[in-house]
Amino acid sequence: MQEVTSIENEMYLIAKDFIAMRYPKGWGGVAVIHTDDGKFLTSVSIETANSSVDLCIEVGAMCEAHKYNSCVTHCLCVVRDDENSPFKILSPCGVCQERLRFWGTGVKVGVTTTDHTLKFVTLDILQPYHWTNAYPLEKLEQYTKG
Questions:
Q1: Torsion angle of the four alpha carbons 89, 23, 67, 77, in this order, in degrees rounded to the nearest 10
Q2: Side-chain-side CA neighbours of residue 132 (13 Å)
Q3: Smaller CB count within 10 Å for the chain: N or C?
Q4: CB of 22 within 8 A of CB of 13?
Q5: Gap between the terminal Cα atoms of the chain
Q6: pLDDT surpassing 80 at residue 19
Q7: C-alpha 139: how far from its chain's center?
Q8: Model pTM greater than 0.85?
């Protein structure tokens, strides 16, 4: 089994601390993104009356990475049901996986496990049958940074 790195542990601690601060009661969730220039970017989901316009928790941090022209190396999404519940890691949804692929298939993402351990895998491991495999790499490079 792959060992968790210090970056990944730090991301998890940042997420837990941020949830406790931002959501002292009830549900809470935060995403933490690490970039190749050493930044830890955080974001939360937008709370709206119309859930059809909500965005995933990771989107704000991804936009920050784009804003700073930084390359994403890791992404982690952590939630809890309420202040008395354990923390859970959510694998990125399919849409966020597509967004993260902008930085290449080597981006490491936190994934949900049955034993609730902290585990990261690269996007190419998470999606071994991704649709981009049907195209030559040079055709796709214009759409990616990584």
A1: 0
A2: 18
A3: N
A4: no
A5: 26
A6: yes
A7: 26
A8: yes
